[in-house]
Design brief:
single chain; 296 residues; 12-stranded antiparallel barrel; two-stranded antiparallel ribbon; 2 helices; DUF3078; DUF3078 domain-containing protein; signal
Length: 296
Amino acid sequence: MRRNLLLVLCLIGVLSANAQQSEAEKLIPKDTIGPWYTNGTASLLFNQSTFDNWVAGGENNISGTLGVNYDFNYKKGDWTWDNKVIASYGIVKTRNSSFAKKTDDRFELNSILGKKATERWSYSFLMNFRTQFTKGYNYGKDEFGAEIREEYTNLMSPGYLMLGPGMLYKRDDNFYINLSPATSKFTFVDSKYTLPDEAYFGVKEGESMRYELGFSAGMYYKLDVIANVTFENILGLYSNYLEDPQNVDINYQLNIVLRINRYLTTNLSFQTIYDDNAYQGLQVRQVFGVAANYGF
């Protein structure tokens, strides 16, 4: 676990050593209304494959992923309020599968309110919320070999909410670190899914919420490695004081955008999560493709 975290931090350090501001990035329109600043993109990744008498093998499939990455930030006097929404949903349908299956499904809101204490440090209050849009399933085969599925997750099952005061170090809009030593974490589930021995996201059987109190650390770092290539790093760490504080939850996201022109980009989205209440090991999600983009 420590080795994985070290590799992530080393990667960020290496990238920052080679960072430079892209001239193309400066030309991207950004909206400012009074003390509010907004900037975001919507993207659509699409993939389709067809095989007909292809002796090497293959399975016809069609897939698509719709994503939104949107910032709306406030700054006036000593006060700042930074907000980021990340949402995406993707499905794939293959010829030999009875069901269309999700390739991506998430909604996340990050919000940090800050009141300046020194030039770069602020008193802060953190809010982070995460969930999914639609039902998730476990897939298998019945006794006759037909594909079956069992509903396992849904909207707000699980849903995560983190709240807590802390201190914010902010160099600029592209780099900040927030430390919160008294963060409350709520895990919400539908009680109909819960399992014995807190096997369903750490929530006890028959209940619908789990409460934790602990230390959280969050970092955001966006940089231009070379012209038209942007790396966005989002790292979240959490240690629960009330139970197994040595088991640090990790949520790391890396979004790489290679800009082709105003409307087309090559996107790589990588996310890894360690949360022993959800799964005893690393969860990994990776999406890669050419996307049509719309800035707003």
